[in-house]
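task queued by scheduler; priority normal; single chain, no ligands, no partner chains; default sampling; output format set to structure tokens
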Amino acid sequence: MLGPRQVGKSTLLSALGPDLSLNLADPRTFRDYAAHPERLRRELDAVPPTVKTVFLDEVQRVPALLDVVQVCIDDRPDRFRFLLSGSSARKLRRGQANLLPGRVHVHHLHPLLAAELGRDFDLDRVLAHGTLPGIYSEDDPATRAADLRSYTDTYLREEIQAEALVRNIGGFARLLDLMAVASGRILNVQVLCRDAGLGYETTRRYVEVLEDTLVMFRVPAWSGFRGSSRASLVRHAKLFFFDLGVRNALLRRPLDAPFADERGVLLEHLVGCELYRRLGTLWPEAALYHYRTRHGAEVDFVLEVGREVWGIEVKAGRRVSRRMLSGLSSLAGRCDRVARRIVVFLGERPQRLDGVEVLPLEDFLQQLPA
């Protein structure tokens, strides 16, 4: 199970009742197994038959333990069931870890969905503080804000910085702030280089670190048709922070309520997170993209669901006019697989405008798999 810090991986896997648990985030446990990973095999050989489920928490800290897991599975495939959690795919790859091909089911855990919050879903609270479980469940807004700032300072600015093997600390700090500003927008590495005062390869590597540590996710440009029309499309991806509260805390925004002039950006970000978090386990047949032409026509999200294509625009107002539909018209004109054109807005009741579904945010979210 992979996911950013504090999304509930340990809590969820612990609830499955493992018979033996090792928390590799604990400094002493980490030191013991990092120095002697073969110790795990000796310990498992000695446990009684009642010990069947083994939980290795933050396994990316000691990638060599995955070799031990493989040996145990290969030698006695019916003896143990392993639960593994991690918050960094980069450490696993960089450590040349055995990723157990064909032997492991990979799941991703994200911050909470609106459907999981149910009646506790509060739009302003989500836009300001995000949906990390421990932070959202805190009743006191000042404590929530303090927890978010602590998360960004101790985890993003220190641990991710160490993960990146950063030498230019000031440059990385500037880049992190710039990435937060650009979250939800088209990624232009050249502009980031210039503004952060970093070289291209350094910037590209830092961006890669933020993705590998699951702090950001990429929404690629859509080009789901053939022919010369592809040349007129913007091909750069959009990059999003995994949680709105973390994004806001990085930018040192007042966290009592979202800025009015950022409401549109934040709402688009929220919808993007809701769609992305469903990919894979909840919605295996879906793939997420964005659409923009060099002439300025754009659609916030393009969702491929099997053979169908959905175009999704997000508007923070309570009214939708025909002039807001030009991007959806451009998309439909290029692709005959567009089955749904949707505008998500903050009005109270669904509408239909020139064949476009105009859906209140809650109505749209209720139509997604949960």
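post-processing summary
- The longest helix spans residues 141-163.
- The chain has a mean pLDDT of 89.
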